[in-house]
Amino acid sequence: MSGLAKRFEEYRTWASQAQAQTGKSWLTQLGEIRALKAMGGQCGISDYYWYKLYDDNYLLGRGREDFLGWRAQAKFSLALNPRNAVLPAWDKGVFMLMATAAGLPVAPVRACFHPAARLSEALGRHLKTVQQAGAFLRDPAVYPLFGKPGYSQQGYGAAYLAGFDAATDSIRLLDGQTVLVDTFLKRLLEPVDHRYHRPECGYLFQDSFTLAPELRAFTDWPAICGVRVICLNGPDGVVPIRAIWKIATPPNHVDNFSLGKNGNLLANVDLATGEISRVVGGFWPNTQVLTKHPVSGKPATGLRLPGWDQILDACQRGGAVFPLMKIHHWDFALTDKGPMILELNDVGGTEIAQVHGRGLLTLQSREFLKRHANTSAHPWVKAL
């Protein structure tokens, strides 16, 4: 079967599922898909089904008009974040230096592998060679650690390092598997994935986090589950517009959603209270709203994320630290010591922020884009 035939078959399956869920005929669905073109968000067939735009009872806000399609997902952030201002969002070493200096809540860096002749003490012990990094990793006293590349996307190259086994010269990971030290060291020099990992930007070893106890009781899994907070950063201050809790499930050691392929979950978060609702495990029409966590069996609504006021405060303070970035996609770890910033993203995956029935291209966002976007480089904004 050709790629085009497979795509058509997928659309046909989605249309049948949408009809079963709502009673809408294929013809009605086609009319609604065509109408999306006039709404400014560049939504198409995939967006119509992924975000359940076929279900009027599921949608919040103004409905379909507020949704941002996959064609405009990157454009949304690129229009607001000039390329000369986004280095801290791509290089975690640069981010850690600026965030630490500004007093933002970040996890201390224990050590940093980097070929530079000299690094700031804020990046911990400077490991200049692979041999030095190997000696560091063979010291049982340094564990547990969380390791992550200075430059990577979607969690590539990151790992929770639970301990060292001298008998086998291997590192024990969160899920109980082991990796030889020499094998692990290769990711310091060679990309884990050429698309997403740049080893020349170094590798950071941070103090490990312990998931907040009330969240550990909910997930029944020790992996850190971060919350993504999307903020508009204008001259009048920071305005959070969406928050999503990314819930890692076994055996994943990171919470990346990755279009639903890893089995992790997403929960909508109330911006005022930090209370979660509408937990889903993928994109529509192939997912569902979960009433309980699939591992712990705990109710999937009513839980309030701990330290929510601290998260909102950190977002406000972060706006002044990175003023030229007009949209911030923050990731916070929710730990037993309070919220800790994991990273600041430039072009955040906006698809995770729209699966719960509320779109990002609201009247507020449209007006903000018109005021602050580079419309010469992004003429699509003028039509909003």
- Globally, the shape reads globular
| Record field, number of beta strands | 14
**Approximately what portion of the residues adopt beta-strand conformation?**
15-25%
Uncertain spans: none
Description:
It is built from 11 helices and 14 strands. The protein is α+β, with helices and mostly antiparallel strands. Strand 13 and strand 14 form a beta hairpin. The chain is globular, with a radius of gyration of 22 Å.
Task: Offer a quick outline of the entry.
The protein is an alpha+beta fold. Helices cover 26% and strands 21% of the residues. The radius of gyration is 22 Å and the shape is globular.
Index terms:
384 residues, 11 helices, globular, alpha+beta, 7-stranded antiparallel β-sheet
What is the topological layout?
Elements lengths: L2 H20 L3 H10 L9 H6 L22 H6 L8 H4 L1 H10 L7 E5 L11 E3 L2 H8 L7 E5 L9 E7 L4 E4 L4 E3 H5 L17 E5 L5 H7 L6 E9 L2 E11 L17 E5 L6 E5 L8 E2 L17 H14 L5 E9 L2 E8 L17 H10 L12
